[in-house]
């Protein structure tokens, strides 16, 4: 029987890399929040066409560029994590011996076959919100929201429970399907829960 120890080590390395990316995104997100919560798309020029004097324009541009790059890096790491997790789960289902019995608690719950089935539609994203910063767009279809998949989705109360159980500044993995013309692409995003009673800036409706 095949040994899965190499995949387990790779999974742990990728997870550490993913967390480092998340931490860096948090750092740059804080820069945008300090600058009047300008977000990823807020104007950098005033009404007369000059750089705004109420924000650090250079810092905002730098933060935005880094967030874009880091989101791309995060997408790539998530793809690798999914591939490794799929291999490990396949071995588990085949009854591979010698596997750490508690490993399945570490594998993201997005790995069952239903992970690619959309069950929510994004119909509104607030500019400058956590959803906007995560790169979520109107008309995206959600195939994963935290631990929720199409297979265990019971209603919007399940989504609310995920948000409620997430600590402030905590990360909620979100997987999206996005249509572009005749093609559809998959996007992996990290949605950060804001502190206090601030909104995620995301409105979703169940797909029927």
Structure, explained:
It comes from Echinococcus multilocularis (Fox tapeworm). By secondary structure, this protein is an alpha+beta fold. The chain has two domains: 1-107, no CATH class; 109-208, Roll (Pdz3 Domain). The chain is built from four helices and five strands. It has helices at 5-34, 57-93, 130-133, 156-165, and strands at 120-125, 141-145, 171-180, 183-192, 202-206. Strands 4-3-2-1-5 form a five-stranded antiparallel beta sheet. Helix 1 (5-34) runs antiparallel to helix 2 (57-93). Mean pLDDT is 82; it is low at 95-114.
Give a brief rundown of this model:
This protein has 208 residues and is an alpha+beta fold. Helices cover 39% and strands 17% of the residues.
Give descriptors for this structure.
208 residues; alpha+beta; Pdz3 Domain; 2 domains; five-stranded antiparallel β-sheet; 4 helices; 39% helix; 17% strand; PDZ; PSMD9; Nas2_N; 26S proteasome non-ATPase regulatory subunit 9; chaperone
- Given helix and strand content, the structural type is alpha+beta
Beta-strand fraction estimate: 15-25%
Distance, first to last CA: 43 Å
Major beta sheet, strand line-up: 4-3-2-1-5
Mean pLDDT: 82
Number of domains: 2
E-strand count: 5
For the biggest sheet, the summary is: 5 strands, antiparallel
Low-pLDDT sequence parts: 95-114
> Which bin fits the share of residues in helices?
25-40%
Q: How would you sum up the global shape?
A: globular
Radius of gyration, CA atoms, in whole angstroms: 19 Å
Tally of separate helices: 4
Q: Please write the string of helix (H) and strand (E) elements.
A: HHEHEHEEE
